[in-house]
Amino acid sequence: MKRSIDMLHGKIATKLLAFAFPLALTGILQQLFNAADVAVIGRFVGKNAMAAVGSNASLVSLMVNLIVGISLGANVVIANLTGKGDRDGVRRGVHTAVLFSAIAGVAAAAVGLLLSTPLLRLLDVPDEVMEMALKYLRIYVAGLPFILIYNTEAAVFRSQGDTRTPLICLLTAGIVNVGLNVFFILVVGMTTDGVALATLLSNLLSAVMLFVLLHHSHLDIRLRFRDFRMDGALLKEMLRIGMPAGLQGAVFSISNVCIQAAINGLGSDIMAASAAGFNIEALAFYILNSFGQAGTTFVSQNYGAGNLDRCRRITRVDILLGVSLSVVFSLLLFIFCKPLLALFNSDPVVYRYGRIRLAYILLFEGINTLNELLSGAMRGFGYSLVPATVTLAGICGTRIIWVFGIYPMFKTFEMLMACYPISWTVTLIILTLFYLRFRKTVYGKAAHTAPQPIATEETK
Fold first, then answer.
1. How many whole angstroms separate alpha carbon 61 and alpha carbon 68?
2. Would you say residue 453 has pLDDT above 60?
3. CA 376 to each of CA 48, 55, 244, 297, 431: distance values in angstroms, whole numbers, following the listed order
4. pTM given for the model
5. Nearest CA to 129 among 42, 40, 47?
6. Residue 252's pLDDT band (boundaries 50, 70, 90)?
7. Residue ranges per domain, the chain?
8. How many angstroms separate the CA atoms of 97 and 371, rounded?
């Protein structure tokens, strides 16, 4: 209970920061451990192996974003039930979410293993790195059940305002991951399959640790084996919110798959530089993502409790904090990009193209942050389809048009990277118009009607 945050009372800014910082640190640490995979590969195996891991980045991001979206649905529903004081609903929601994550994870792994080769062919991965890329992807997707279970368990803790427990478990597993990277590559003599296996085992460890903590919890989120069954109505609500949220994240990755295919056509040097840049820019993403999730969780609990004015103030403070910190952190990463890129590979060509990628992304991260925070605010009210649809049109649509319509006329890396800030800007314009209409409609209705309880099997 000491780690939980009372989202319904007290100062908003202080509690948003207390929630978001451990969550951001969790994501940053996770990315640093992923970057360790690339750094160890780049230093001890070579540029081709580094390019092989990088060629999987967009596919891995696609799968993880879908997973995170599903877990976000669990976060919103359980937080809402917590705000209502529905203790039995919370217990049903937790068991439903964890059980479904295990089943969905196994299904996703099976599909990923079947499609790994055609997906890499679709990305036009060069023949010289195909074998190593395939090794990495197959082992990684085999570990998808553990990633999905961990993210769902972490979402359960976050629904109660506890972002530190998932951080501690991730830190422990990440240290193990780095040690296993070195062991599998330097001692065993493995290549990309070594870093993939290290990732799989560390994800298994983090999932098991959170499961044990939930099993021994004294709160309503306690997991008990005899209670594992799915509440159909709660699952439907989680998927209604989570699937569009997952789609919204996946849309970024789907469009990035197209971009990655274009990058692969520019040669292994640019592939390696892009992989290094991706691992650095992702650090900035976790700042904006943490405030997006904070806004979603805080709004969801307060909406469940009927605190409508507080919901409005939460969104306003969340945008101010999130944009400010995201912009500052992104600028710092760009200023120090030379030593950061050198951690992956000291080749001057890798630095040159890596810096180009970072300039087009980090210097415009504030636009991306606004998109995330506006979407998060709507998801907190259970409105997940609108931001997902807008993102599909704005992000995916713009980037696909750019990659297949504009880029072929110039065929430069700079022109390819320009699609990121342009697509963010287009999306922000559309999303802002929808958000203003949404806010007027939702607050207008909410001022006259109390929020309806989420249905369970017993209340249907």
1. 10
2. no
3. 38, 30, 12, 9, 12
4. 0.73
5. 47
6. low
7. 12-446
8. 27
